[in-house]
Design goal:
Helix content: 40-55%
Number of domains: 1
Distance between the termini: 27 Å
Number of helices: 18
CATH class: Alpha Beta
Number of strands: 12
Shape: globular
Length: 537
């Protein structure tokens, strides 16, 4: 047990963490009765994807994204997400279901993946063009991958307590970044414990694509010891052009922001060759820079700040510092109707608190290479017997390292459970320890077993998705929540219409230039100056 954890459980009460917040974002493809990506529009019954706070779309018109507000506990966030699922399931077009897997269903070709449509307003067109750029740069298949984001923030009382323990002056902003570094250092444990994409449909890869994956029948590829191919070298994490260096300095927040800003403002020759406009004169990229906007930078954990109206997110972060952390490495659990379980969210919360309490682990270039290597090893070979990873002090067996992390959380779990007369945190530790000692019980192993029994990834995924769909329809969403969502649907449609009335085709390029002029103002200032005040939940 580290020194901060010892002080916390011995001297503090759990009220110090009251006010922490957990939010969930979960993506799911809509699929038709044949198990292919739905060709229909985002359902009008779900509102306007541009403006709805809880139900939107990600890359494609068929990729529904359900978002919870920040909730007091992970359990409450999961309950809210399940209620949203029930609402969405009841309003899908006839014959459609939500594909409950990270790796996509059957894909005919790139054109079968329709880019999200958000209307004729400036913000709607900007979202659509950004996605056109993603498809142009990386291919649309890559954008059909789905996942879950786990968002976490701590209250003032927690930061006050931590600052009181610091041996030297420390802002909560720098402490949040240290927390992110610590989480990245052990980030491989997320795909190991919760990875559920050890098999894919062959149609995900372009014809003739070279891969080390093993064939299972004519339509499925598998990784026998894999955990999360989504996070491996065929997934979104490795989408970047190998000829472009998208390295970002992870030693401190100022350096992190400066590098992301550099990628957003520097042209990449290959993208310049593609051009901002297509042959018909329609804009196909927001710009020809290494990254169109900061959201194009993929990280397993990202520091976040809520932008004000019209403010670029990266500049909000530079101005006001970190408000919460976004963990992005969680696969959809194919066996759970909402894609994750109560045990999973409890464990993720414990890992966040572990990273909060641990001593800072700055990540230089060598450390970052080690972190990336560990991630890729676990994604492709995580269940391989006697697999070793590289820790800060040398190599060690994966199972030994994983067990030590989970076991070290026992005092924290007991401390949290005592406050609620519950055992949810201790229960999840017991479950994870049992899985580490028996890797064939991990979700990735269960997926592989199910696919092998079915003979086909797409058939296995379709069967589970239909079963979950029936489960969701068997009970309505909470009545109070359903009323809130109904109101949000109507309000989102009104907001979209209002934005469209305020926009015109003629002023799009001018407004786009104005949007990016924020970066010019930032660069002409005195450099990157991140906020240092306490981050609020």
């Amino acid at each position: 047990m580290n020194r901060r954890m010892a002080r916390l459980v011995e001297d503090a009460t759990p009220t110090v963490l009251e006010g922490r917040r957990v939010g969930l974002e979960k993506e799911s493809l809509r699929v038709d009765a044949q198990g292919a990506i739905a060709a229909t529009d985002h359902p009008e019954a779900l509102g306007a994807a541009l403006c709805h706070p809880s139900i939107t779309t990600d890359f494609s018109e068929a990729l529904v994204e359900m978002v919870t507000p920040p909730m007091a506990t992970a359990a409450e966030a999961l309950d809210h997400l399940e209620s949203t699922h029930r609402y969405v399931a009841a309003r899908l077009p006839a014959g459609e279901t939500l594909w409950n897997a990270s790796m996509p269903c059957i894909i005919d070709d790139d054109e079968s993946i329709r880019i999200g449509q958000y209307g004729s307003s400036f913000s709607g067109r900007m979202k659509h063009i950004y996605r056109r750029g993603l498809g142009l740069r990386y291919g649309r298949r890559m954008q059909a991958i789905a996942g879950i984001h786990f968002n976490f923030s701590l209250p003032d009382s927690a930061w006050d307590w931590r600052l009181a323990q610091a041996g030297a002056p420390e802002s909560s902003n720098s402490a949040y970044f240290s927390m992110m570094q610590n989480l990245m250092g052990i980030g491989w444990i997320v795909p190991y414990l919760f990875g559920a994409s050890s098999a894919i449909c062959r149609s995900f890869l372009d014809d003739g694509a070279i891969t080390d994956l093993q064939a299972l029948g004519d339509s499925t590829l598998v990784e026998p010891f894999g955990t999360s191919l989504r996070m491996g070298n065929i997934g979104y994490r490795y989408r970047e052009d190998r000829k472009i260096d998208l390295t970002v300095d992870h030693r401190c927040l100022d350096a992190w922001i400066a590098d992301v800003l550099a990628h957003v403002t520097h042209e990449h020759p290959a993208y310049a060759t593609l051009g901002e406009f297509d042959a018909d004169g329609q804009r196909q990229q927001l710009n020809v820079n290494r990254l169109q906007i900061e959201n194009e930078y993929y990280g397993t954990v990202r520091p976040k700040q809520i932008p004000r109206a019209g403010e670029m997110p990266i500049l909000a972060l530079a101005d006001r510092g970190i408000r919460y952390l976004e963990l992005r490495s969680l696969d959809i659990d194919m066996f759970e109707p909402t894609g994750l379980s109560a045990d999973t969210v409890a464990m993720l919360e414990l890992l966040m608190l572990f990273a909060w309490l641990a001593d800072p682990l700055p990540l230089d270039d060598v450390d970052m290479q080690r972190v990336k290597s560990n991630f890729e090893r676990v994604a492709h070979r995580g269940r391989q017997p006697e697999l070793t990873l590289e820790g800060p002090d040398g190599s060690l067996p994966l199972d030994v390292w994983a067990e030590s992390i989970v076991a070290s959380l026992q005092p924290l779990a007991e401390w949290l459970d005592d406050a609620t007369d519950d055992t949810r945190y201790q229960h999840t530790l017991e479950l994870q320890l049992s899985r580490i000692s028996a890797p064939d019980t991990l979700p990735s192993a269960r997926v592989l077993e199910g696919v092998q029994a079915s003979g086909c990834f797409s058939s296995f995924g379709a069967e589970l998705s239909r079963r979950h769909h029936d489960h969701l329809l068997a009970e309505p969403p909470r009545s109070d929540h359903a009323r809130e969502l109904d109101e949000a649907v109507e309000q989102s449609l009104r907001m979209r219409d209002q934005l469209e009335r305020e926009s015109s085709d003629d002023d799009f390029e001018t407004r786009l230039a104005d949007w990016f002029s924020q970066l010019d103002a930032q660069r002409s200032g005195s450099g990157v100056a991140t906020g240092t005040s306490t981050a609020r939940s």
